[in-house]
Here is the input.
Amino acid sequence: MADVLLIAGTTVREVRHRRVLWVLVLVGGLLLALMVAPMAMMQMARESGEGGFAKRMSFQMVDMVVGAFVFAASVFAVFLGATVVSTEAKTRTIVTVLAHPIERWQFLVGRWLGVQLFSLLVVAVGVACGVALAWWLDLPLPNRFWVLQLEAIVDVILFCGLSVGLATVVPPPAAGVGAFFLPVLPGMVESLMGHPSIFVRWSTTLLYHLAPARMPESLMGTEFWSDVRNPNYGLFAGILAEHALYAAVALVLGCMVFARREIRLGS
Here is the structure.
């Protein structure tokens, strides 16, 4: 366990040295620029007595801030996860690491943990900024805000697990595309499951059940300030648990493949 944590800490430091933090600074700067006009419109709405419109704009600004950081965390999870093996192989540092008494699966889990912690930290920063903005706007956040943030956290965990697992089998570009593609695959093939062709029907049904379960938008909604009639928290929690389990299975399979595959070093 100590070796895994050591590799995870090294991974986080490497991410910091790769100037990824500058991307977060850029995201923050863009958010500030994009909020100038909505803030002015919100102030005008309040002065004109349009309290409902101003409140809705306030909710949308909070959602925009949190959503931008969650999207950035998802991109980080996929990009960094897809390159955890190839980066070490190109720089040949993997030879030095594996020369120590450490198992290959420990190396991969440590790299995954480092990327995962960094990605979740980005989500935490986004949520903190959203809560701070809501406090500044004197805007009470409903409980559904926190429920949807839990969904965002599990989504990032799924992206990271998929990208790391796929990176042990396919090149980094394919691993990144696959990590983004698999979660949306059920929605893409669902309409073809009733196709007249038996081959199309069976193949799409197989893909539908092999991919992570799709979260219906009507289940909890996409706007945390909107009311949802009869929300099914049990089904919501079940899908989140399946996504987390899917990420864990992808990581375990990746460890099994990585333990046996030949590592090709960069020239």
Observations:
- Residues 2-258 form one domain.
- The chain has a mean pLDDT of 80.
- The chain has one domain: 2-258.
- The CA atoms of residues 14 and 114 lie 9 Å apart.
